[in-house]
Design goal:
Structural class: alpha/beta
Largest sheet: 7 strands, parallel
Distance between the termini: 33 Å
Number of strands: 7
Number of helices: 9
CATH class: Alpha Beta
CATH superfamily: NAD(P)-binding Rossmann-like Domain
Shape: globular
Order of helices and strands: EHEHEHEHEHHEHHHE
Length: 248
């Protein structure tokens, strides 16, 4: 169950955190994983680790904020591998500030990478997927795109936009055997969240019914399900993986 044997998957933001774990989990499920990030060292090391452990992986450096470069990477990968089955748009950034203090470049940077980058990736990935009449696009959103969060108007807008875009594209390509879904993580233990103060962490935990921080594996397992054949009748959905945070 949930095998990705003979599947080719591109995962952005694979150098650390959630993206890195998704790449490992997909490789264990027998997919060939193309690890994508801006810096080479981390994804090269990850690719070598996966291959050394009996998996199949390669790597490509790319700034997904550069739409032309990202589109070319996807097209080249599909040509080299003979197909593209799965795209996971995971790469993202934050540049937090209250709206009254937010600079225009902070807004533009976050929207360009988090939302426009996914637009370019999805557009390029759909061509080989439509040719094969099969495909899985998984966009990593955030519960902030559902609930909002003070000081993150740009980030919330990018993730809410990603959810809306995913629903629209899902309707466009459903008859071609392609699904488009989002995962909205809650508080996940990564390098970014490790920097929060103990006081902030305690306050966050008080709002999570499960009373624990999520792990990158929690997101990766949800992504594995959505990427699998078993999830073929699920599209246009946003799965919150947040320990119950949005219901509290």
């Amino acid at each position: 169950m949930f095998s990705l044997a003979n599947k080719v998957a591109i995962i952005t933001g694979a150098s650390r955190g959630i993206g890195k774990v998704i790449a490992k989990v997909f490789a264990i499920a027998d997919a060939h994983v193309v690890c994508v990030a801006r810096t080479e060292n981390a994804i090269k090391s990850l690719s070598e680790e996966i291959n050394a452990n009996g998996g199949s992986a390669s790597f490509q450096t790319c700034d997904i904020g550069d739409g032309e470069a990202f589109s070319s990477l996807i097209s080249r990968t599909a040509k080299d591998q003979g197909k593209l089955d799965i795209l996971v748009n995971n790469a993202g950034v934050t540049q937090d500030n209250l709206l009254m203090r937010m600079k225009e470049d902070q807004w533009d940077t976050v929207l360009n990478i988090n939302l426009k980058g996914a637009f370019h990736g999805m557009k390029a990935a759909l061509r080989p997927m439509m040719k094969n009449r099969s495909g899985r696009i998984i966009n990593i959103a955030s519960i902030v795109g559902i609930t909002g969060n003070p000081g993150q108007a740009n980030y919330a807008a990018s993730k809410a936009g990603l959810i809306g875009m995913s629903k629209s594209v899902a309707k466009e390509v459903a008859t071609r055997g392609i699904t488009v879904n989002c995962i909205a993580p809650g508080w996940i233990g990564t390098d970014m969240t490790d920097e929060l103060s103990d006081e902030v962490k305690k306050e966050f935990l008080s709002r999570i019914p499960a009373n624990r921080i999520g792990s990158p594996e929690d997101i990766a397992h949800a992504a594995l399900f959505l990427a699998s054949d078993e999830a073929s009748y699920i599209t246009g959905q946003t799965i919150t993986v947040d320990g119950g945070r949005v219901i509290n």
